[in-house]
Write a structure and sequence with these properties.
This protein is an alpha+beta fold. The protein has two domains: about 1-50, no CATH class; about 60-140. The protein has helices at about 65-75, 80-85, 90-105, 115-120, 125-135, and strands at about 5, 25, 35-40, 45-50, 60, 110.
Amino acid sequence: MNDVYSPHTGEHIITDNPAPWMGRAGVDAPLYDPVAQGCFWRGDALEVVDVQDDPGPVPESATPAQGLMALYQLKGITEADIEAAIEGITDPAQRYTAQIAYRKTTLWQRHSQSMATIAALLGLTEQDLDDLFRLAPSFLL
């Protein structure tokens, strides 16, 4: 019977000789592609799920040039769009702070206050920022 799974993870185990510690579902696992899919015991059935690639950790920083290229590729946002968004800040002190933080930085930091401000101005989500910082290092300068 093709019903063996790990009691710790629920993952189906393909084996003709189950060990005593392995769980038994009592029903055969459905056919699945072990490279592109996984099969897991979910309490009353073996369920096939597609494998999702783990993108890995989000880099903490990027150069402004890398960030701008990534931002354009992902969202079509240009440097002029960022400048216009900053100009739209009504409070003069906040606008000046954002201008300096954007124009004078030598490193974009994923979790900095200035990055959060720019992201809010541009309507970027947390996922957008993660995608930006994952893509940015691919632009070698």
